[in-house]
Write a structure and sequence with these properties.
The chain is of the alpha/beta class and 408 residues long. It has helices at 2-15, 17-29, 38-50, 97-117, 137-143, 195-209, 248-269, 289-301, 310-314, 322-326, 347-352, 359-378, 380-392, and strands at 54-57, 65-70, 77-83, 122-128, 152-154, 157-159, 170-179, 218-225, 236-245, 272-277, 331-332, 335-337, 403-404.
Length: 408
């Protein structure tokens, strides 16, 4: 029966490959920013409903959704396949979320086909999670209890390597505002207090600080408002920084260091500073090794070759709200190679995410995800192993401080 169900699972994905490609293309051609993914929401929910899923549109958030198939009586295993579909400003799908959505939906089709053959396997939920790029749609869903009763969750990210358990970082976002005093920049500059000088000094402070922080810590920033006209001393400026680190304790220390940079720039220029550490910090992904090893086994059997380069394996792939989910339920979050050398978040990666060459690996990844779920559904000991590891690993960290000016 196990082999028969695997064949049914693979066939369902293969039979839908043209429709899945079209789905991915529709999302790619219509890039939408966080919480604005109306077209993606509609095409995904229509597709899943046409495939026999029970669909709840506008779920929790306007562009969120939930699609389910299978028994809801508690028997078997409840698998959640997450879907991401927001794009980046100006670059479009430079994170390849059109492919991520395609992989998730394809995996769900495979799992659904197996459940049709054997209802006692359990249930599959496709959870549409908007606003991964900073909006934290998954955090809203966690807070609403959307992951209650789920045994494990899955999602895959397009990349230029195959990695079963990629490293991700905790991230904290902070908005920094400097207030000075306007004056004519040529006639009476001494009457002004230059908020742009404060922003530039802050940026320089942070740049100098990078020399004395750990290589795994990251801090990136931009000036979002630098003034109005060259002949007016800027009275107000705004900056946005991302702080990242592998562990929460590291991130709190980096937060303190960055705060000192913000305050010092204000003191040096005579300006006032106000900074706010924004809500919805993302946590690092706690990969469940049972799930990651199962995924890798099935992916290799399908022809995917995984990187063995330690430098690649230890390099961060960024930050994601999948990390927050992984602290609530066991997760597998592999990266799959879409046959490009282009780095993520570039125009070249946007183009690669719509290329025909990406279709084979995305379907192989989807099959591996579906086979992973199917094996857990068929072997009760695996479900116990996954749960035991999740409960053993201390996934609870000291929360990062959010709010205004937490350090005087």
């Amino acid at each position: 029966m196990a082999g028969e169900l695997s064949s049914v699972c693979s066939k369902a994905i293969g039979d839908a490959k043209d429709d899945l490609n079209h789905l991915s293309s529709e999302i790619w051609k219509n890039p939408e920013l966080a919480f604005q993914e109306t077209h993606a929401h509609n095409v995904l929910t229509d597709f899943l409903e046409n495939k026999g899923f029970k669909v709840e549109r506008n779920y929790i958030k306007k562009t969120g959704f939930r699609a389910t198939y299978g028994s809801g009586d508690g028997e078997g295993v409840h698998v959640c396949v997450m879907c991401e579909y927001d794009a980046l400003p100006s670059l479009g799908h430079a994170a390849g979320r059109n492919l991520s959505s395609e992989a998730s939906v394809a995996a769900a089709l495979g799992i659904q086909a197996a459940i049709k053959q054997q209802q006692k396997l359990g249930k599959v939920t496709v959870l549409g999670t908007p606003a991964t790029e900073g909006g934290g749609g998954k955090l809203d869903m966690i807070n609403e209890g959307c992951f209650d009763g789920i045994d494990f969750a899955m999602l895959a990210q397009p990349l230029n390597e195959n990695i079963a358990a990629p490293v991700t970082l905790n991230i904290l976002r902070v908005r920094v505002n400097y207030s000075g005093k306007a004056a004519h920049a040529s006639t009476q500059p001494w009457e002004g207090k230059n908020a742009l000088d404060a922003a530039v000094a802050c940026y320089s402070n942070v740049a100098l600080m990078r020399q004395q922080i750990k290589p795994t810590w990251k801090i990136n920033g931009i000036i979002t408002n630098g003034g109005l006209k060259p002949n007016i001393i800027p009275e107000e400026t705004e900056m946005l920084f991302y702080l990242r680190a592998p562990e929460q304790t590291d991130l709190m220390f980096l937060q303190q260091r960055a705060t000192a940079c913000f305050v010092a720039a204000a003191k040096a220029t005579g300006c006032e500073v106000n900074f706010e550490f924004l809500d919805k910090p993302y946590h690092n992904v706690v990969h469940n090794s049972v799930l990651a090893n199962l995924y890798k086994k099935h992916a290799e059997a399908l022809g995917l070759q995984f990187s063995t380069d330690e430098e690649v394996l230890q390099c961060s792939t960024g930050s994601t709200d999948v990390g927050n989910v992984s602290h609530v339920v066991p997760c597998v979050y592999p990266a799959f190679d879409i046959k490009t050398q282009a780095p993520i978040h570039t125009q070249a990666f946007t183009e690669a995410s719509s290329a025909p060459e990406a279709q084979q690996p995305v379907l192989q990844c989807a099959q591996a995800m579906a086979m992973t779920a199917l094996e857990v559904m068929q072997q009760s000991t695996l479900k116990s192993d996954i749960k035991n590891e999740f409960e053993t690993i201390d996934a609870v960290h000291t929360p990062v401080i959010a709010g205004t000016n937490p350090f005087p």
